[in-house]
């Protein structure tokens, strides 16, 4: 009997010893699991915030780099006569485009008319011009053979000097006469006579927004025709959006 009681006490002591030994390890295991769960939650939250940060919230402004509005030369010199694009303005509120060319008669003879090779799809959108024009977009101008619009208002240079050589005073022969040239002051020297070049601004008002490209340019002076190229509206297109997005 006594032996059995000792055996039962021994077994209870062994179970108590085992519980005492594992009691310390149980909280440690729980702490490790909680710590691991916390690390996982931290990583998950970080990834969630990163993804949310990459999503478009509507507060970021779009920046779009637009191509140049004009293509081709903005200036042409046709044997002393010059044409230069000096204005290209699009008004979003009225959906209109206003352009202007500076035309200068600076050659040996005054310009009688000049032509800008606008296509029919552009010419039909002309609202008004500062000078009268003739439509040759579908039937070529007989004097230049060009298609486009023709400005028929002639140019007149003003004499600003007399004969610089002449028969008296030891004037030289024809081979000694200076060739024509255009000075910075706008004075054209042709032989011995000086003329002040006639220069005007020709404004064209168009409905809509346009892409630009190289087009033909023609000037008729006396019996001579001089051809070149310049940039001009080529086709009507939709204007770029306000935000570019």
Describe what you observe in this structure.
With 245 residues, the protein is α+β, with helices and mostly antiparallel strands. It starts with a helix and ends in an 8-residue tail after the last strand. It has a five-stranded antiparallel sheet with strand order 1-2-3-12-5, with no helix packed on it. Strand 2 and strand 3 form a beta hairpin. It folds into two domains: 49 residues; 150 residues, Immunoglobulin-like (Sandwich).
How would you describe this structure in keywords?
alpha+beta; 245 residues; 38% strand; 5-stranded antiparallel β-sheet; Immunoglobulin-like; 14 strands; single chain; 3 helices; 23% helix; 2 domains
Brief overview:
By secondary structure, this protein is of the alpha+beta class.
N-to-C CA distance: 96 Å
Q: What would CATH call the class of the largest domain? A: Mainly Beta
Strand fraction equals 35-45%
What is the structural class? Answer: alpha+beta
| Overall residue-averaged pLDDT value | 74
Number of helices: 3
Q: Based on CA inertia axes, which overall geometry fits?
A: elongated
Give a quick account of the main beta sheet: strands, pairing sense, barrel closure.
5 strands, antiparallel
- If strands are numbered along the chain, what order do they take across the biggest sheet? 1-2-3-12-5
Secondary structure tally: strands:
14
Helix content estimate: 10-25%
CATH architecture of the largest domain: Sandwich
């Amino acid at each position: 009997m006594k032996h059995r009681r000792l055996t039962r006490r021994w077994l209870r002591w062994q179970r108590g010893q085992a519980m005492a030994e594992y009691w310390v390890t149980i909280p440690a295991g729980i702490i490790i699991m909680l710590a691991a769960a916390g690390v996982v939650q931290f990583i998950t939250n970080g990834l969630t915030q990163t993804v949310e940060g990459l999503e478009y919230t509507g507060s970021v402004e779009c920046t779009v780099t637009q191509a140049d509005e004009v293509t081709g030369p903005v200036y042409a010199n046709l044997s002393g006569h010059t044409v230069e694009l000096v204005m290209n303005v699009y008004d979003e509120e009225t959906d209109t485009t206003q352009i202007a060319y500076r035309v200068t008669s600076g050659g040996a003879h005054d310009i009688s008319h000049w032509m800008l090779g606008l296509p029919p799809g552009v010419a039909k959108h002309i609202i008004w011009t500062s000078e009268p024009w003739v439509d040759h977009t579908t039937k070529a101008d007989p004097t230049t053979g060009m298609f486009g619009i023709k400005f028929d208002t002639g140019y007149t240079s003003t004499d600003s000097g007399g004969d610089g050589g002449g028969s008296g005073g030891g004037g030289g022969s024809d081979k000694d006469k200076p060739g024509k040239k255009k000075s910075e002051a706008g004075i054209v020297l042709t032989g011995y006579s000086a003329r002040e070049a006639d220069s005007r601004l020709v404004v064209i008002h168009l409905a809509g927004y346009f892409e630009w490209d190289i087009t033909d340019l023609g000037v008729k002076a006396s019996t001579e025709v001089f051809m070149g190229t310049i940039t001009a509206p080529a086709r009507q297109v939709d204007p770029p959006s306000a935000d570019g997005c």
